[in-house]
Write a structure and sequence with these properties.
Layout (H helix, E strand, L loop, with lengths): L3 H11 L6 H13 L1 H18 L1 E2 L6 E2 L5 H4 L4 E8 L2 H10 L4 E5 L17 H8 L6 E4 L5 H13 L6 E4 L15 H9 L2 E2 L1
Parallel strand pairs: 3-4, 3-5, 5-6
Antiparallel strand pairs: 1-2, 6-7
């Protein structure tokens, strides 16, 4: 392999989740060999995404509009608010088709060792949203990690004064598991078997 441009392309591709140096080389080669059908359309899509996609000011999802399509969808159940730690978890639940309410993306989980404190997450806006008259249930759909469960306990305390039922995912989510790695059936079972936090 020659050329610093090609090497930079391989290095950038290798940084993507699920890809390493070998996969990055294969992806770079495929893009370069199919410039007209793969590389140029990909460049156009990436430029469009970079300029058009923004974070929803209400829930934190990524979309080309603010509020996002999920927030403005009148068919969604506004009485249920599902709290997830990141967009990958939201997309996992949406992809499974097991939840028809509204979402709230925290932007991470509490982790003192990594310097993530409550003020670094969108907890204040969650408390405000939970106080809205149409919200009846807040579902804590956080990963079953130590940090995820610590965050869930913290949220239960912060939401205690709200007039909402607080539930969390139950059966099917393994300890140490992350939502975006679970299959649709497991996600559906976990959401259906939720219980008070």
């Amino acid at each position: 392999m020659t050329g610093s441009e090609i090497e930079r392309l391989v290095q950038m591709l290798a940084r993507l989740p699920g890809l390493g140096p070998r996969s990055g080389r294969r992806a770079a080669l495929a893009l370069l060999e199919k410039r007209e059908t793969l590389l140029k359309p990909l460049i156009a899509v990436l430029e469009n995404v970079e300029s058009a996609v923004i974070a929803c000011g209400r829930c934190g999802n990524l979309d080309a509009t603010d509020p996002c399509a999920l927030c403005v969808n009148t068919k969604r159940d506004g009485s249920k608010l599902c709290v997830v730690e990141n967009i990958a978890s939201l997309w996992a639940l949406e992809g499974a088709g097991v939840f028809s309410g509204r979402y709230h993306v925290l932007g991470g989980v509490l982790s003192p060792l990594d310097g993530v404190a409550p003020d670094d997450l969108s907890i204040s806006s969650l408390v405000s949203r939970a106080a809205e008259s149409d919200v009846r249930e807040v579902i804590l759909a956080l990963s079953a990690t130590v940090e995820g469960q610590t965050t869930a306990h913290y949220l239960v305390d912060r939401l205690a004064s709200s007039d909402v039922v607080i539930t969390k995912l139950a059966h099917g989510v393994p300890i140490g598991g992350e939502l975006d790695y679970l299959d649709d059936g497991t996600l559906g079972a976990a959401l259906q078997a939720r219980r008070p936090a």
